[in-house]
Amino acid sequence: MSSDSVVTHVVAALAVVIATSSALGAAARRLGQPPVVGQLFAGIALGPSLLGLVPGRVYETLFPAEIQPILTSFAQVALVLFLFAVGYELDLGLLRGQRAVAAVSLGGFVIPMAMGAGLVMLLPEAFVAVNGGRPVDATFTLYMAVALSITAVPVLASIIKDQGLGGTVPGTVAMASAGVIDALSWPVLAVVLVGGAHGSLRDWGVKAALLAVYVLVMLFAVRPLLAWWKGRAGARVSYQVPVAVSVALASAWATNALGLHVIFGALLAGVVMPRRPDGTPDGSLLRPLQGAGGLLLPVFFAVSGMAVALDGLHGSDLLLLVVICAAAVVSKVASGTLAARGVRIPWRDSLLIGVLLNTRGLTELIVLNVGLATGVIGPRLYALLVVMALLTTAAAGPLIRLLRRPPKGRPASTGTPPETLPGQGPDAGPVPAAGAEAAPAP
Predict the structure, then answer these.
(1) pLDDT single digits (tens) 214-264
(2) Selection from 178, 442, 191 nearest residue 332 by Cα
(3) Which terminal residue of the chain has fewer beta carbons within 10 Å of its beta carbon, N or C?
(4) Angle at 12 between CA 9 and CA 18, to 5 degrees
(5) Closest CA to 145 of 177, 184, 176
(6) What is the DSSP-derived secondary structure letter of residue 232?
(7) Which DSSP symbol is given to 273?
(8) Which segments of 77-202 are extended strands (E)?
(9) Could you tell me how far CA 227 lies from the centroid of its own chain?
(10) β-pair partners for 424
(11) Contacts of 58 (CB under 8 A, 6+ apart)
(12) d(CA 47, CA 177)
């Protein structure tokens, strides 16, 4: 295929992907679902599982093998921009003086991880069979633990807004806790992948040391340099976005060269980017990055969906899917509910927090793509976990509406005002809804 032909196919493929994702995302929203559900289904529909069944080799004509690496590159750039924004918004100061957020974050992280690891240890033969014979070792076990612990912050922000939960205790605590849970999950995932899917202990030690050095350089060299550059006399806001994108891409390249994934470098670049004097992200920098990342994210959904080969699943895989979904839902809902109830949040609001934390969506897809790309999981298990992410995300809206339905004779409750959060320090204001202000709603 000539270079002109490749360009023609890429442009056509991007037009189809963005238009289809936008249309199905809008349809999902009209059905009361987060747009990510429709966008991911668009990727599956455009892949070999559905479009590949259409006669006339439509799938191969629209998405020939020669353009797949280019689409994957677009998807990776979208992830870099998106996760840079996530890292820039990340604020672990949410834990200070907020006993409710700390309790829910810890419970919503540890219990699902334990459930994921326990599931692998209870059913090792089933996972070996569905994962193409890959060994059920410590790397795989820890990876599955992380996969069940994820909560999708951007999708959760969209659900909270759509369901009118902004400013309520369930929405506020769930949003803040989800940010902390994801902040804890990324380092664990880095530990899982730093030595590779089947790397030796020596390889793991070398890469871990190099990664530690890189993190120190970013924190104590790059961050002060960026702070000086932003604060110097005559600094222009229009130059900040190109510099931020350059830093994000360079950091993503560095972590990828260390044997990790571009997502870790992008997150780290966002974390070290200086904020305003009051500690809040700079909106003039954040909004353009979120806009650019949001525009390209449909390509990521398409690439993710195209990797889902539903025709490759076996009948026995469906039983494992049911088990995985049950473990994912029970661990998240139960841990969030019990942790919230433990700090004296009412039962109804506590259960609502647990349901909100069960939203996985985009962040789960990122984790699954990393696992597939690094060889930790194979195509069949990847397909099962993508379906699990879809089902748990799609279930959030109906369950929230059910829980918010008032008892007969009583008005609907939107939750306790945030000022009455249990365990809130006397000088700590309401828990901020981390990432809710400018988080994209893919």
Answers:
(1) 999 999 999 999 988 877 766 666 678 888 999 999 999 998 887 777 888
(2) 178
(3) N
(4) 135
(5) 184
(6) S
(7) S
(8) none
(9) 28
(10) 98
(11) 51
(12) 35
